[in-house]
Design a protein that fits this description.
12 helices, about 270 residues, alpha/beta, 2 domains, 7 strands
Length: about 270
């Protein structure tokens, strides 16, 4: 049993990889295309040919696949072996035997492992670093992996003060007490979707927003809900803190999407 599996069994970490394994059952061409469009939009690049792309915490493997289809040479790694298996399955389906897509198990907190990987044109880590248990060590490690004039694309949970502390308690109990998970998932669905679903039902457009969710990076609303409710460890940061950290490490901000309330603030930085 590896470290990730032990932590999951002890309730110290959410089983991200198991959730993403289930997501693969609904993955289709439309979702992949949405992921590609999301990358192109945020990176302001229509083609990644000739670029190297490091996917830190590859999760389902969807964005590694998108980057490879856009022409990048890709290296994917994740701490969770189920997530590694997801990426391997996508490679088997779409790029069998491809030497330009490497997939490994590894940790962003493992400096020795990262040193072997060198520097990359695009370093991508969406919604991952705040789940490591040491956000700022992970950030220190990540910024060191970007080539000069390269791009860093990260997404970090927004800090909402006491509301974030409340979500941290919910996530903690979700992982420590399996019997309460159905209750917390029901609460999460009603909290995020209840009013919208009711209004759409009354407007004779039942679940319209739920069905349209695929347009958000090609993801699945149910699997994202499970990921949110269970996502532990859990840390947060305000946009200015992330900006100041990266600026202090020689980066300039190229793109920014902020969230009001919970969710990920998205940043694209360029290494000066």
């Amino acid at each position: 049993m590896n470290d990730a599996s032990k932590e999951i069994k002890q309730g110290e970490r959410f089983a991200f990889g198991e959730n993403w394994s289930r997501f693969l059952s609904v993955l289709n061409e439309e979702r992949i295309k949405q992921a590609e469009d999301s990358l192109k939009d945020m990176l302001e690049l229509n083609d990644l040919s000739g670029k190297t792309f490091l996917d830190i915490g590859n999760g389902s493997g969807l964005f590694s696949l998108a980057a490879r289809r856009l022409g990048a040479t890709v290296h994917s790694f994740d701490f969770d072996t189920h997530s590694v298996s997801c990426a391997l399955e996508l490679k088997r389906r779409f790029f069998p035997g491809d030497p330009d897509w490497v997939i490994e198990q590894g940790s962003v907190l493992d400096s020795a492992y990262l040193a072997k990987l060198g520097k990359w044109d695009i370093v991508y880590s969406w919604g991952v670093l705040h789940h490591t248990g040491d956000l700022w060590k992970a950030m220190e490690n990540v910024v060191a992996m970007v080539n000069d004039k390269g791009l860093l694309f990260i997404a970090i949970y927004n800090d909402e003060g006491y509301k974030s502390s409340r979500w941290a308690r919910i996530k903690y109990h979700y992982n420590k007490r399996p019997w309460i998970r159905p209750i917390l998932l029901t609460y999460g669905f009603l909290h995020f979707w209840g009013r919208t679903c009711l209004n759409e039902f009354l407007a004779m457009r039942p679940m319209a927003s739920w069905r349209a969710y695929i347009k958000s990076r090609g993801m699945s609303p149910w699997h994202d809900l499970v990921d949110w409710m269970g996502g532990w460890p859990y840390e947060v940061a305000t946009p200015d803190v992330v900006f100041n950290f990266c600026r202090g490490h020689g980066f300039t901000l190229q793109r920014l999407i902020t969230r009001q309330g919970i969710g990920n603030n998205e940043f694209v930085f360029r290494k000066v």
